[in-house]
Amino acid sequence: MDSSRMSEETIDGIMDATYRALCEHGYAELTMQDIAAKSTKSKGTLHYHFDGKQELLEAFLEHLLERFEERTETVPGETPAERLHAFVDELLSSADDDSATAFRTAMLEIKAQSPYDEAYQERLAAFDQRLRDRIAGFVADGVAAGEFRDDVDPEATGEFLVTVFHGAQTRAAAVDRSPERTKEYVHAYIDEALCADDGGSGGANGDDTDDSAAIGEPEGSR
């Protein structure tokens, strides 16, 4: 890819066109001409900057993930719990939001190819790790502040919540099921399983029977 001669406006325009063409045509049927049709640039111009569809989609995935991270770089909230709740709201945006729906559709198309494409897989793995680190950071801050229980494992909780996020996003795109109910459950999980208000007596129901839910570990994984 030769992006040195492209302005940021040109790059954004091509990425936006790729976004819309991918959502409309799907990965398998997508062509450079489809992308050009959604852009102000010709097919020849696209080929001048990108060797082909594969390279363009690799750049698009990087662009998509960067924009998502920019959107979630700063989340509101005065406490770690409030910031974690706000981050969950960003991760599980309502299906009624057209941009969120398009994001899920585009990501599902790319994810479906990642087992066969090392470049996609590497980028998605890096994004996954950044999400886990971000959530683990909020949780660690909450534990340090005494807001979350001191037996909560930030890394395991991050792993658990990112798994929930990916599942909810895929389900929303694949079978048109809004992630709204999942978001409600995650908010309840934060308040009931992570917070120290119950004196650290146990899981979401306040008992001692199973601490795995409180630390984000599925039972049987320990």
TrEMBL record:
Top-rank lineage group of the source organism: Archaea
Segments for region (Disordered): 197-222
Keyword Phosphoprotein: no
Sorted UniProt keywords: DNA-binding, Repressor, Transcription, Transcription regulation
Annotated ranges, domain HTH tetR-type: 8-68
UniProt keyword Repressor present: yes
Gene3D superfamilies, sorted: Tetracycline Repressor, domain 2
GO MF term list: DNA-binding transcription factor activity; transcription cis-regulatory region binding
Pfam families: TetR_C_6, TetR_N
Residue ranges for the DNA-binding region feature of this UniProt entry: 31-50
The name this protein goes by in its record: TetR family transcriptional regulator
Organism listed in the record: Halopiger aswanensis
